[in-house]
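My main concern about presentation is that the manuscript never shows what a single data entry looks like. For the editor and my fellow referees, an illustration may be useful. For illustration, here is how one protein appears when written out as sequence plus C-alpha cells:

***
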Amino acid sequence: MYRLMLYYLILLWVISLVLSATGLIPYHPIDILLQGLTFLIVCHFTNLLFAKIFQASTNLESSLITALILTLIVGPISFPQNTLTIFLIGTIAMASKYLVAAKKKHLFNPAAFAVLISAFLLNTGASWWIGIPPLLPFILLGGLIILIKIKRFELVLSFITLTVIGNLLTQGHLDPTLLPPALWFFALVMLVEPLTSPSTKRPQIIFGFSVALFTLLIPKVYSTYPYPLETALLLGNLFTAIVSPTFNLILKFRKKELVAENSWALFFEPLGNINFTPGQYLEWTYPHPHPDSRGVRRYFTISSSPQEPLIMVTLKLPPSPSTFKQALLNLKEGQEIVASSPKGDFTLPQDTTIPLCFIAGGIGVTPFRSMLKDLLDRQEKRPITLLYSNSNETEVAFKPLFDEVKKLGVITIFVNTKQDGYIDTHMIQEKVPHYRQTLFYISGPEPMVQTFKKMLQGLKVTGIKTDFFPGYTDTHQKGKL
C-alpha cells in the first residue's frame, strides 16, 4: 500500500516535469525538479535524525511520501534563493511526527501540518499547484488504483458527497469547478492517509463528512481565510484522535512455533496495555535491511485470545517469502517491533444466539483461532460451524483447539481439497442447514473471499462479513476452497 502510494506520487512528479517542459503547465521544470529533490533529501535525513533522538523505528517510505506530497502542493519555489524555506517546511513536517504525537503516534497529517505552520510563520503555504487541469486524468486514475488497494471508498465518497451537496445548497447548481483537481488530490492522497484516518467504515464515513463540513464552514466564518483544506484536514485529524484514539505499541519477540506446514506462530510480549476484540488486526512496522517492493509494513490478524499473555500472529511462508516475513522469522528473543493499536470490525455479534458459520482458507483461519480460543477461555457457547479448507492435512493449523471447542457445540469440518473437493453451494446447504438465517464470516486471500461472497449472495444469504489478506495470491483453483 505504501509502496504503491510512493510510486503514484513519483509518477505525478515525473508527469508534471514532462508537462512543464512542454509548456502545458506554467512552471519551470528545473524548479519542480529541484524542489522535489530537496524535499526528498530534507525529509529523509531529518526523519532519520528525529527517529534517532526519540529512539523510534523509522520508515523510509513514509518520509518519501510526505516529501513528494509537499513537492506537489508547495510552490514551485524558485531556486536557489528559497532553498531555506523548503528545508524548514520539510523539517516541520518530519518534526510533527515526533513532537505532535500521543502514545507514540502522530496526530496530524505531516504535510498538511507543515504547510499550515509555514503559511503563518514563513508566509509560504500550499499553492496546490498540482491542481492544474492537465494533471486531473493522472490524479484520478492513480487515485482510483490507490482506493482499490486500500479499500477506503466510503471515506472519499462521504467527503465528496457532502462537498457536492454543500456547494449545491450554496450555489444552487453543480459547477464542475467546485471539484477542482486539487480537491481530488487532497481526497485521494492526503485524506486517506492510514495513520491519521480511521481504519473501519463507519468512523471513516464520519471522518470524511467532518472534514468536508469543516471545509465548507471555514470560508463562511472567515471569508478571506486562505487555507481551508489543510485546516479542515487537521481539525478532522484532531476530531478522530479525540473520538477514536489510537496508539502505537512496542512489543518484544519471545518465541516462534511451527503450527502447520510452512506456517509459523510468532509470540510477542506487549510493553504496555493492549485491549483487543477477537478478530481484530494490527499493522506491524519492522524496518529491515534491503526490503523488497512490498515494504516494511504489514497487516496481521491477532491469533491469540485476549486472555493469553502473549500476542500471537501466524504467518504462512510461500516458496519465495517477502523480506518482511523473512526478517520476522529471523527475530531474536528480546528484539522489539512496533505495531498499531488494534483495528477492524471482523468481530463476533453481541447476540450469542445468532447462528454463525466461519469459512477459512489456509492461514485465513487466524481470526477464528482467536475467536474460538476466547470462547473456550470464557466457556461461552455459541452455535458455530467452521468450514476449514486446505489442500492437504499437513496444512491444518490449530487442530487441537478446534477439537477441544467441540464441547462448546462448535462443529468443525476439515475440507481436504485433494480428497474432498472444494467448498461449494451444495456443501454449504448440507453442512449449514439454516444458512439463510446464519451470519457468515469469510477469511482468506482476497480472490477467495470475493468468490465466497458472490456464492453466498447467490444463495440469498444477507449476513456476510469478510476479512481478506492484502497481497496474498489465491493458490486454490479459481478462488475456490
